[in-house]
User: Which sequence fits this backbone?
């Protein structure tokens, strides 16, 4: 029994390559032979990873091992699901991707090759997306007789708009990395092979921010943006007050006033 449990645990962990670089945790989708298609095992492994972040981790980078980020749902996962099973399966994805979106720390997705279907839904749960020229974005669910089930209908329209997502699902339209950067799929476009390095650079920069400010950006900003204006303004005032009263914020402001930190300049 113990050996079987150990083997299952090893198989589970083998679906991800998890490494620590300073205060940054890297999480690699590790099914390269299947273009990192997402099955229940890898989704649950991601959920476990984000439910057990150590206190000294300041940012996470998600990437794909091999030539692709993720080709989406492994369709063999759907063969045994009836309506009830399908609902439970979709909600399991929702819970895991919520752990990413509402993570204690910022999450950056490094994108290359296929970023399609469930892989695109996973990328949308991250806070920052960095793509290299090989990346391409698609939602082939419409051609396969299914519908997005990993939160894509909620998250993706907020990035690219309902009409663009509608077009993708109805026609099978594929967006290149260059188009994706201009339409909101990603915030950064790098040279070929550069997405992971850029994601790490951003992650390391982010870990140097005051933790309370990072927390406010991740947790309060999305709610403020979606609230009615007066509620949003009140929430902003409360969050600003809390952030500014933090000891670290006071020290950083004093350092700036004492000209111990650099002023903002164009890159």
Assistant:
């Amino acid at each position: 029994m113990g050996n079987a449990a150990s083997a299952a645990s090893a198989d589970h962990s083998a679906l991800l390559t998890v490494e620590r670089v300073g205060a940054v945790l890297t999480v690699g989708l590790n099914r390269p032979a299947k273009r990192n298609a997402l099955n229940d095992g890898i989704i649950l492994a991601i959920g476990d990873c984000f439910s057990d972040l150590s206190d000294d981790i300041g940012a996470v980078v998600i990437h794909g091992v091999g030539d692709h980020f993720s080709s989406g749902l492994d369709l063999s996962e759907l063969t045994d699901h009836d309506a009830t099973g399908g609902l439970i399966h979709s909600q399991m994805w929702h819970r895991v991707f919520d752990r990413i979106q509402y993570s204690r720390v910022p999450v950056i997705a490094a994108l290359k090759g296929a970023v399609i279907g469930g892989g695109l839904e996973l990328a949308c749960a991250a806070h920052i997306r960095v793509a290299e020229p090989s990346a391409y974005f698609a939602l082939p669910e419409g051609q396969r007789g299914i519908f997005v089930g990993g939160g894509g209908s909620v998250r993706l329209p907020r990035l690219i708009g309902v009409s663009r997502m509608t077009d993708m699902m109805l026609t099978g339209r594929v967006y290149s990395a260059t188009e994706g950067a201009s339409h909101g799929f990603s915030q950064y476009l790098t040279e070929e092979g550069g997405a992971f390095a850029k994601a790490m650079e951003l992650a390391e920069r982010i870990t140097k921010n005051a933790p309370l400010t990072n927390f406010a950006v991740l947790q309060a900003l999305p709610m403020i943006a979606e609230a009615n204006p007066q509620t949003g303004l009140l929430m902003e005032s409360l969050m600003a007050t809390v952030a500014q009263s933090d000891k670290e914020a006071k020290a950083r402001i004093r350092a700036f006033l004492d000209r111990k930190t650099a002023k903002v300049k164009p890159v």
